[in-house]
């Protein structure tokens, strides 16, 4: 054994303690750290021919790279839809690395049994029936991709072929209908060989991002045979929700596949105040939910559900004697694109076991309250304009005057050390989004964000370019 490996193995308890202390110090500083630190990126160095052991690597990381890391796990990182990591999820993730399991096969099955229990807990959390079976994947993009791959096989079944066996060329043209599909849907269609042009945007309701059911029905009447409907349970700009029951009725009437993208909107099911938004979620043929968003587990983790596990296994089966069973209960290796992956279910198992439905409902309700408070402040603040009602956990707003992309970028830059927001375009207008999904965010954090907004808007030049 290499001497540095041998030395690190002998000193592993002490080195892990040093790592724990470094991690704890980083986490303890999140509340006051710059949300997006300013400063130059370290110059890259060549690979060392001779390493100097873990202790030196920890010190080098702390000196060169850690100071530039954002506080994305902290309470005022409101960009994208980014959760933090609950204490239980962090413990689960550390144990995941320690155990280093690739539990995709019944030949070494404990990990996949744990994942099945975890998926069952998630099914209960979101109010789904036992007809939905699921597996964990890396994120919402992969969850949407898996769901649409199953939909592709269903379309082939309707036409008497199997795209998994015969290729997508045998399928012919495909239409995927949606009102405001997330960009990952087009990416998935490209990856699946269906093509981005298969996505047909259907008109939405006036002033909404929710699809107009009457317009969708007209598109279905015009379609040449079965097609796929992609419904939204929480759009990224305004957290708008399609009428899931109305879309399921159209699915039944026109013999379509209903995929619901509920990446973070599914968590509305946890809150008595918002559960009506996801009425009909269980009617999906396939369903996407992201876990490293509002469940607050580490990247990368999401879950996909479907009613057609048989079609899923037909798409993803990997026939090899050493890979395990493809029977009534297929091994995980036959259900997703990956043959190998870490036991990503463990962090989710830990946070669900530690805090239960009640604890995670509290996170959802506090985030929704924070969004409502910020939305009300934006609506009342001279110089800002709220672009949509705050339905759940996202505040979408713009400058009331001269709202160019450049000026909004300058506003976001001015805020960056105190709060991180991401740019968007809503109804043709450049805007900013604040997405509340972190378990650490408090009412005090919201007030700090409001104060920072007031100051930044006041100091923003009246008009003209503000960024070089």
TrEMBL record:
UniProt cross-references to InterPro entries, sorted A to Z: Aromatic_deC, PyrdxlP-dep_de-COase, PyrdxlP-dep_Trfase, PyrdxlP-dep_Trfase_major, PyrdxlP-dep_Trfase_small
Cofactor: pyridoxal 5'-phosphate
Pfam families: Pyridoxal_deC
Domain of life: Bacteria
Keyword field contains Lyase: yes
Modified residues (N6-(pyridoxal phosphate)lysine): 293
Family that this chain belongs to: Belongs to the group II decarboxylase family.
The protein's name: Amino acid decarboxylase
Upper taxonomic lineage: Bacteria, Bacillati, Actinomycetota, Actinomycetes, Kitasatosporales
């Amino acid at each position: 054994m290499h001497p540095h490996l041998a030395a690190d193995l002998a000193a592993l308890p002490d080195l892990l303690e040093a790592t724990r202390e470094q991690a704890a110090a980083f986490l303890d500083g999140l509340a006051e750290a710059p949300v997006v630190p300013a400063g130059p990126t370290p110059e890259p160095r060549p690979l060392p021919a001779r390493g100097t052991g873990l202790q030196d690597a920890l010190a080098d990381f702390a000196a060169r790279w850690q100071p530039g890391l954002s506080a994305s796990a902290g309470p005022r990182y409101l960009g994208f839809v980014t959760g933090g990591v609950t204490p239980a999820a962090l413990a689960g993730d550390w144990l995941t690395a320690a155990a280093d399991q690739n539990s995709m096969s019944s030949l070494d099955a404990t990990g996949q049994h744990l994942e099945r229990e975890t998926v069952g807990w998630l099914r209960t959390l979101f109010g789904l029936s036992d007809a939905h079976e699921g597996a964990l994947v890396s994120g919402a993009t992969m969850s949407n991709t898996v769901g649409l791959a199953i939909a592709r096989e269903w379309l082939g079944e309707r036409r008497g072929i199997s795209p998994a066996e015969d290729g997508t060329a045998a399928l012919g043209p495909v239409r995927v209908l949606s009102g405001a599909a997330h960009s990952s849907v087009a990416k998935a269609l490209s990856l699946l060989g269906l093509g981005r042009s298969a996505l047909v945007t259907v008109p939405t309701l006036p002033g909404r991002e929710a699809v107009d059911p009457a317009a969708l029905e007209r598109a279905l009447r015009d379609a040449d045979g079965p097609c796929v409907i992609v419904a939204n349970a929480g759009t990224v700009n305004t957290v708008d929700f399609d009428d899931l029951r109305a879309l399921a009725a159209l699915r039944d009437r026109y013999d379509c596949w209903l995929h619901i993208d509920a990446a973070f909107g599914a968590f509305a099911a946890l809150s008595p105040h918002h559960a009506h938004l996801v009425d009909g979620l269980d009617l999906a043929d396939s369903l996407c939910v992201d876990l490293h968003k509002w469940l607050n587990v580490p990247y990368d983790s999401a879950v996909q559900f479907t009613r057609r596990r048989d079609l899923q296994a037909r798409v993803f089966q990997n026939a090899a004697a050493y890979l395990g069973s493809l029977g009534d209960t297929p091994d995980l290796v036959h259900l997703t694109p990956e043959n190998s992956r870490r036991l990503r279910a463990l962090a989710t198992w830990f946070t669900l076991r530690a805090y239960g439905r009640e604890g995670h409902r509290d996170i959802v309700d506090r985030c929704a309250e924070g969004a409502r408070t910020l939305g009300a402040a934006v609506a009342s603040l001279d110089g800002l304009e709220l672009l949509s009602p705050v339905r759940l956990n996202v505040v979408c707003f713009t400058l009331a005057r001269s709202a160019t992309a450049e000026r909004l970028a300058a506003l976001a830059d001015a805020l960056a050390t105190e709060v991180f927001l991401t740019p968007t375009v809503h109804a043709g207008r450049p805007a900013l989004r604040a997405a509340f999904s972190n378990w650490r965010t408090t009412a005090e954090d919201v007030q700090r964000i409001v104060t920072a907004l007031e100051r930044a808007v006041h100091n923003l030049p009246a008009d003209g370019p503000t960024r070089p």
